[in-house]
Give the backbone structure.
Amino acid sequence: MTRPPRGSKARGMSDQPPLQLFNSLTRRLEPFEPVHEGEARVYTCGPTVYNYPHIGNMRAYVFADVLGRTLSWRGYALRHVINITDVGHLTDDADAGEDKLEKAAAGSGKSIWDIAAHYTEAFKADIAALKIREPAQWSVATDYIEPMIEFAKSIADEHCYELEGGLYFDVSTVKDYGRLARAVTEEGEGRIEAVEGKRNAADFAIWRKTPPGETRQMEWDSPWGKGAPGWHLECSVMGEKLLGFPFDIHTGGIDHREIHHPNEIAQNQAFCGCGSLDEATHSGAKIWMHNNFLVERSGKMSKSSGEFLRLQLLIDRGYHPVAYRMMCLQAHYRSELEFSWEGLGAALTRLKRMVMAVDRLREETAGDPAHPKLAEARTRFAAAMADDLNTAVALVALEDVLAIKKIDGGVKRAAVEEMDRVLGLDIFSLERADLRIQPKEKMHINAEAIDSRLAARRQLRSLGQYEEADEVREELYRDGIVIMDGDPLGWEWKLQ
Ligand code: AMP
Ligand code: ZN
């Protein structure tokens, strides 16, 4: 058993099983033991704000949110940082291509700053719609240029060398380079463009010089010439500045496990003067966690090919954004999750059922305040979350509590609220009506007018005028509306 943090206010903390998390660096489940007693410091790689995030990207933040909520629930004071990458991320994760933001700005007539501000706002809107809690701190990469230069200066002599293109990190100068990655090849992890003069294929630029004769919208003076920081440097520096090495947990999607995080780790080892990664804290963090991908049936999710699955597209098609959160929670974060509209529809139905059950909790009922089924479901919920955040099993425990009969209403409600705070569906703030979103293409349909036509039909039926009532049904059908008499979820109508 891990010791509960001092001053913990979480109920039943001492009864909680130890929180086991999968560490991608050591490749095993490990108990969470905080670096600083009673605190949990978490760094999450944030979005590169050159385009809208797709829902795959958002899976990474739903996962980090559930992790943060679990740590808070278990009584740790959470310090969560998510960064915003507004410079330095090249079109290829490795060492090739153009800066994603410079590329997006070129020819758009907008400044990089406008583009970054626009997509940062769009990202934050998706965060809010998915009930993801805001981190204690958003850190914007371009606010940390000075500390990045200082960090790079401190490791340059021992670990870096200069080429025409910039300052490069020599990966042979640290122990166990690339241990985190799974797909290491002899050439390094799929580097595509060879840079002349590189000592090792996996060496990467930590400062990228502006090519002679070019001016960039984003460039700063440095000891290695005018230019911009490398993407990996940003996260090392913001992690160190805001959370201190070593901090507790670093998160990101599995693509980051291959290039971005091994490079961050190498820089962190250099900065700390640390040795082998047999000691995980030498990497800068104790635990590295990675969510698996959301994929489309056709393969990898992309912002440029096929249907661009943005959260707004789901809403436009009539799906409440929390249905997508539900879809994420139904899978373990380390499993690949395939997106389908049918799957999203099923998640929405499950959410509707929960919201209806919560609705019924509003009526106070008397009953057993210490119902044995409640204790059992709570134990199951806690065990599931402690087992590397097994949200799929925890969801069932929550539904089982909602289904308990002959239980004190207040006690039941409190238990559901507590579980919902961890899973973050925010079911108490949702009304059944909120979940009925009209698809954009059917926006001409006026819900109030439908309700009044349905009321007229009910009136006709109560008067025994069934033919006229059927006439109303037919009319509505012609307008694209199906009446759902006897629907188990209590919906009166739906769109065809
Ligand atoms: P980016 O804006 O490309 O830096 O990505 C933001 C986050 O989304 C990173 O943690 C990525 O690892 C993660 N990510 C990218 N694509 C997917 C996907 N299809 N499923 C889950 N996570 C993803
Ligand atoms: Zn990062």
